[in-house]
Design a protein that fits this description.
heterodimer, A: 145 residues, mainly alpha, Helicase, Ruva Protein, domain 3, B: 181 residues, Glutaredoxin, 5-stranded mixed β-sheet, two-stranded antiparallel sheet
Chain lengths: 145, 181
């Protein structure tokens, strides 16, 4: 190892040592940055991730609370974080946010109310279109050429 | 059903879809009505800006109140400031400010520089009251009637057009409601 190191010029060695120090300094910082929202357990962490991905950043264009850097999103992340730490359930947290910001905060619309139409519309369109196509083809075939 | 009519069906469907898409171009999510509309003002209590007294949601009932969320760092707030100063001439309404996520010294300087339309200002340093009100950002304006019910919300600065078309008629309506009701 010492022999190997001695092959490398002194300047390079110093630079490599410098780089190593910088890396050792940066890695712990990155570790801290990852834990802005420290949780007691993995379950809370998972709940936080799920909620922040399912709620809309209202001041952005179709971005979730988790993805956005907008101050609004970071406020809501903080609120979700506090409520998760206080052992609130998902429906409780979502309801409290809906009370203030309305249904639009759901990135995925609920199945209840008139929203089921949104979910069924693509299926209905496909069914109508394909049955129409089948009717046309059957009629065409029935016709003598 | 004639053959010609049958071929018009897909065309009709296509036109209908295009119409719906075209209309949806005009929908702006930021102008969605607040779920708090026509509901009582949420309860809150906070310190007045640079004062020791408290201001609570109860102070906002009994008057026609304009609740304006502002901050000294907010440039759009400056844009609507002349409208608020004009509104403050009307003695039948009270204008309450919610100083949102601001520095109290900066806020005080701002008011000294540009004038103070507010009769009371709550200092919402951490934005907790703003959250209760479902605030997206600054400026936002609520109009609350004498019974403490939120009757109107506007997101963004109040300009001449918003003032004339929405705020002025509503204040006139609320004033007469209270006179005769």
């Amino acid at each position: 190892m010492a022999k190997l190191l001695s092959i490398i010029p002194a300047g390079r060695r110093a630079a490599a040592a410098g780089l190593l120090i910088v890396h050792l300094l940066i890695i712990p910082i990155a570790g801290i940055a990852h834990d802005i929202y420290p949780f007691d357990n993995a379950q809370q962490q998972a709940q936080f991730n799920k909620l922040s991905h399912e709620l809309r950043c209202l001041v952005c264009q179709s971005e979730s609370i988790a993805e956005s850097n907008a101050p609004f999103a970071s406020d809501i992340r903080q609120i979700i974080y506090e409520q998760v730490r206080n052992s609130k359930t998902n429906p409780e947290i979502i309801n409290s946010l809906t009370e203030q910001y309305g249904d639009y905060i759901h990135l995925k619309p609920d199945l209840h109310k008139a929203n089921f139409l949104i979910w069924l519309a693509p299926l209905l369109t496909l069914l109508l279109g394909s049955s129409g196509l089948v009717v046309i083809i059957v009629r065409q075939r029935a016709k003598p050429c | 059903m004639t053959a010609r009519f049958k071929y018009a069906i897909p065309l009709g469907v296509a036109i209908a879809i295009l119409l719906i898409l075209w209309m949806s171009l005009r929908l702006t999510p930021s102008q969605l009505p607040s779920p708090l509309l026509n509901k009582p003002l949420p309860d809150f209590k906070l310190k007045e800006l640079n004062e020791q007294q408290w201001v609570s949601s109860h102070d906002l009932t009994g008057h026609i109140t304009i609740l304006n969320i502002w901050a000294s760092w907010c440039e759009a707030c400056l844009a609507e400031h002349t409208q608020l100063l004009k509104l403050s001439q009307n003695k039948q309404i009270q204008i309450v400010g919610l100083n949102y996520k601001d520095n109290s010294t900066a806020a005080e300087h701002w008011l000294q520089n540009y004038g103070n339309p507010y009769s009371i200002i709550g200092f919402d340093h951490d934005g907790q009251v703003g959250f209760k009100l479902g605030v997206y950002g600054t400026p936002e304006t609520f109009i609350i009637d004498k019974q403490g019910i939120i009757r109107y919300k506007h997101i963004g600065p109040i300009d001449e057009a918003v003032y004339n078309k929405e705020i002025k008629p509503l204040i006139e309506q609320l004033t007469s409601e209270h006179d005769y009701g």
